[in-house]
């Protein structure tokens, strides 16, 4: 018997019970839509992380202090006292692969200009900081080596700080702002960088000479971190190793002692973040997968009920010439039709939702073909798998018994 | 005989229920020639339905041989039986057994789906022709719940005819219908028998229905007690016209 005949019979049977078909589909629709949205959002997150990290410069190397005392209290990196100017000097003088290096001393506080104020972060750095981070100035200048040496009270503002401290149309260059009690003259404004991969506003920052920040704000000779730039992306690993060796030397660590700092490269961060988002996506996909499975069990339930309810119909079909395998095919195709139409509806709904996520969260949502293909084939398999036993049961009915069934 | 369409020789059918053996058919032999209109009568439980199921290849006898149009049915597989039912037999049931929420046309076309030789357009044509033959040309798109009992039974008869079977088997096909409608169905049956030459085996327990056939076989307790040709076949169409109008209620 031609497959098309079977499909037509199954379709007719399904249309005889539209509401039930739709309700059965619902589980599959929700499951597939969830898989699509989560898949697309996860891929979008990866993509945006990659994009921001790339904009931060792929040569970037970051050093943060670390407690190497396994029993010691965990402290925030600003409070860990391991990185000093000596480390910067050692790397500057002896490194072969590092092109530029800047310390970083951060502190939170209130920035004030006139009647306006804004809670923000001051970051004390040196004059080489901007190219290391791949940042640039929109207007004004960066402070100089001389400014650093003379503890100059100057600063460069991120756009967010400018927006909150200055009314529209006012040029902040040359104006004096205060960070806490410290008066600072604005000499430059940074270009907008937007959010980081972690959702942090990178424009909410005030840059000042680290000397000024250390003396007047943090009152500490220790740095919260070091930024360095490898001579090229290819030398990034070599530069990292060099920094580790030099820091161990200046920190006088013995061979058995572990590092009291941590070196992170952009490449590594990318890897870590991808693993994290990947794991999260897989986890959520798993949950979505379970809902698909439940949808499949729903199909099996309904198919069993259908076979029971339509026993007389099965008997009739057999009496007019349907073979066992014709009945099997019809019920199997009915189950597959339900799960596949559920799957298609789910894919459409999922894509629509993915677009909504894109609009609302400004995530570039990747329209992926592979979750679609996977959910589609998965639905077909679910239909076959969960439809098979009820269909087999139907095909094995005795025509006389079935016709007698009340 | 050359043109015997059904040949039954000592057919027995036992049902096993646990340790009990229920003997329903106890050795039945008869021939039915092509073009005969046979009614099978007998009291309830005498084995009429069991015999008809055997004739219709829905059931196999425990013992005995059954030749349908020259084929020994006892030797066929389940699938071959299904094929035989599809090509050679048209069933009409007491309960109509139409698919609900399905048009008369689609109901009638159903047996043709199980015949791969027939194309979709041919299916439609033949279903429409069969409905026309039972006088339901105007009702093709109606679903069973929009039709009267008599009309539903006529749809079922059209379904039995659509595959051009050699014989029609009916099990109390007028059992649910009033006298007038029963006569209408019987008139249709007589026309199919005389005009189209269809062989008909019709189970009933109403003697006035049996009077429309050319031969009556009476069963009792699984055995044939009477097998008579009918010397005085009632013309159903004519009797229908003579029915007192009182019966219209
Ligand atoms: N599958 C079965 N298992 C056991 N007994 C059966 C089975 N089918 C039929 N019988 C028995 O066979 C006997 C004859 O049944 P059958 O249905 O053939 O009677 P019938 O002549 O058609 O009666 P009615 O006029 O009431 O329809 C009954 O006693 C019934 O109980
Ligand atoms: Mg009966």
Description:
The complex is a heterodimer of chains A (406) and B (249). Chain A is an alpha+beta fold. Chain A folds into two domains: 3-52 and 277-404, no CATH class; 67-259, no CATH class. Chain A contains 13 helices and ten strands. Chain A has helices at residues 3-15, 18-55, 85-94, 129-133, 145-149, 159-165, 210-218, 236-250, 266-309, 311-319, 324-361, 369-395, 399-404; strands spanning 60-65, 98-113, 116-125, 137-140, 154-157, 176-179, 182-190, 205-209, 225-230, 261-265. In chain A, strands 2-3-8-5-7-6 form a six-stranded mixed beta barrel. In chain A, a hairpin with a 2-residue loop joins β2 (98-113) and β3. The longest helix of chain A is centred in the last third of the chain and has 44 residues, at 266-309. Chain A is elongated. The mean pLDDT of chain A is 87. In chain B, a hairpin with a 2-residue loop joins β9 and β10 (223-229). In chain B, the strands form two sheets. In chain B, strands 6-7-8-3-9-10 form a six-stranded mixed beta sheet. Chain B has 249 residues and is of the alpha/beta class. Chain B has eight helices and ten strands. Chain B has one domain: Rossmann fold (3-Layer(aba) Sandwich), CATH 3.40.50. In chain B, 33% of the residues lie in helices and 28% in strands. Chain B is globular and about 50 Å long.
Summary keywords:
heterodimer, A: 406 residues, alpha+beta, 2 domains, six-stranded mixed β-barrel, 13 helices, 17% strand, elongated, B: 249 residues, alpha/beta, Rossmann fold, six-stranded mixed β-sheet, four-stranded antiparallel β-sheet, binds magnesium ion
Tell me the layout of helices and strands.
The complex is a heterodimer of chains A (406) and B (249).
Chain A: H1 3-15, H2 18-55, E1 60-65, H3 85-94, E2 98-113, E3 116-125, H4 129-133, E4 137-140, H5 145-149, E5 154-157, H6 159-165, E6 176-179, E7 182-190, E8 205-209, H7 210-218, E9 225-230, H8 236-250, E10 261-265, H9 266-309, H10 311-319, H11 324-361, H12 369-395, H13 399-404
Parallel strand pairs in A: 3-8, 5-7
Antiparallel strand pairs in A: 1-9, 1-10, 2-3, 2-6, 2-9, 4-7, 5-8, 6-7
Chain B: E1 4-17, E2 20-33, E3 37-42, H1 48-55, E4 63-68, E5 71-72, H2 78-88, E6 89-92, H3 104-113, H4 120-133, H5 149-161, E7 167-171, H6 179-194, E8 199-203, H7 207-210, E9 215-220, E10 223-229, H8 236-242
Parallel strand pairs in B: 3-8, 3-9, 6-7, 7-8
Antiparallel strand pairs in B: 1-2, 1-4, 4-5, 9-10
The complex binds adenosine-5'-triphosphate and magnesium ion.
């Amino acid at each position: 018997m031609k497959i098309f005949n079977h499909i037509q019979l199954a379709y007719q049977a399904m249309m005889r019970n539209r509401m039930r078909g739709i309700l059965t589909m619902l589980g599959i629709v929700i499951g597939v839509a969830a898989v699509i949205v989560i898949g697309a959002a996860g891929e979008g997150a990866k993509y945006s992380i990659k994009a921001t990290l790339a904009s931060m410069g792929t040569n970037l190397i970051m050093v943060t202090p670390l407690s190497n005392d396994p029993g010691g209290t965990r402290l925030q990196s600003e409070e860990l006292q391991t990185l000093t100017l000596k480390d910067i000097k050692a790397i500057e003088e002896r490194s072969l692969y590092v092109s530029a290096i800047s310390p970083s001393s951060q502190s939170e506080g209130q920035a004030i200009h006139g009647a306006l104020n804004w809670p923000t972060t001051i970051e004390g750095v040196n004059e080489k900081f901007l190219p290391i981070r791949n940042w640039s100035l929109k207007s004004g200048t960066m402070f100089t080596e001389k400014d650093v040496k003379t503890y100059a009270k100057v600063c460069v503002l991120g756009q967010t700080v400018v927006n909150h401290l200055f009314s529209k149309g006012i040029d902040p260059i040359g104006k004096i702002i205060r960070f806490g009690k410290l008066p600072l003259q604005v000499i430059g404004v940074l270009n907008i960088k937007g959010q980081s991969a972690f959702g942090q506003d990178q424009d909410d920052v005030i840059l000042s000479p680290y000397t000024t920040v250390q003396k007047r704000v943090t009152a500490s000779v220790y740095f919260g971190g070091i930024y360095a730039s490898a001579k090229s992306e290819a030398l990034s690993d070599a530069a990292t190793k060099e920094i580790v060796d030099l820091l161990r030397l200046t920190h006088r660590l013995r061979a058995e002692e572990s590092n009291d700092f941590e070196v992170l490269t952009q490449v590594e961060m990318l890897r870590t973040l991808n693993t994290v988002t990947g794991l999260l996506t897989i986890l959520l996909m798993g949950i979505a997968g379970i809902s698909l499975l439940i949808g499949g069990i729903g199909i099996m339930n309904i198919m069993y009920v259908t076979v029971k309810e339509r026993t007389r119909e099965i008997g009739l079909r057999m009496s007019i010439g349907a073979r066992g395998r014709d009945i099997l095919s019809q019920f199997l195709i009915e189950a597959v039709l339900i799960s596949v139409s559920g799957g298609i509806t789910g894919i459409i709904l999922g894509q629509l939702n993915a677009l909504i996520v894109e609009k609302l969260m400004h995530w570039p949502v990747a329209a992926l073909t592979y979750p679609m293909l996977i959910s589609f084939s998965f639905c077909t398999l679910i239909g076959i798998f969960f439809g098979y036993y009820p269909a087999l049961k139907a095909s094995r009915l005795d025509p006389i018994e079935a016709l007698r069934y009340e | 005989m050359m043109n015997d369409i059904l040949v039954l020789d000592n057919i027995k059918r036992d049902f096993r229920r646990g340790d009990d053996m229920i003997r329903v058919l106890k050795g039945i032999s008869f021939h039915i020639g092509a073009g005969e209109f046979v009614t099978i009568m007998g009291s309830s439980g005498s084995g009429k339905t069991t015999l008809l199921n055997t004739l219709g290849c829905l059931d196999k006898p425990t013992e005995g041989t059954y030749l349908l149009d020259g084929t020994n049915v006892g030797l066929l597989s389940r699938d071959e039986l299904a094929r035989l039912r599809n090509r050679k037999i048209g069933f009409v049931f007491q309960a109509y057994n139409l698919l609900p929420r399905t048009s008369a046309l689609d109901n009638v076309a159903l047996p043709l789906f199980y015949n791969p030789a027939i194309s979709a357009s041919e299916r439609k044509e033949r279903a429409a022709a069969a409905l026309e033959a039972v006088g339901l040309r105007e009702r093709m798109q109606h679903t069973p719940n929009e039709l009267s009992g008599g009309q539903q039974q006529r749809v079922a008869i059209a379904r039995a005819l659509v595959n051009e079977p050699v014989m029609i088997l009916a099990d109390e096909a007028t059992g649910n219908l009033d006298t007038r409608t029963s006569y209408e169905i019987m008139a249709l049956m007589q026309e199919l028998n005389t005009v189209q030459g269809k062989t008909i085996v019709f189970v009933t327990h109403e003697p006035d229905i049996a009077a429309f056939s050319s031969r009556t076989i009476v069963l009792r307790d699984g055995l044939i007690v009477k097998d008579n040709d009918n010397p005085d076949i009632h013309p159903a169409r004519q009797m229908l016209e003579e029915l007192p109008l009182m019966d219209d209620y």
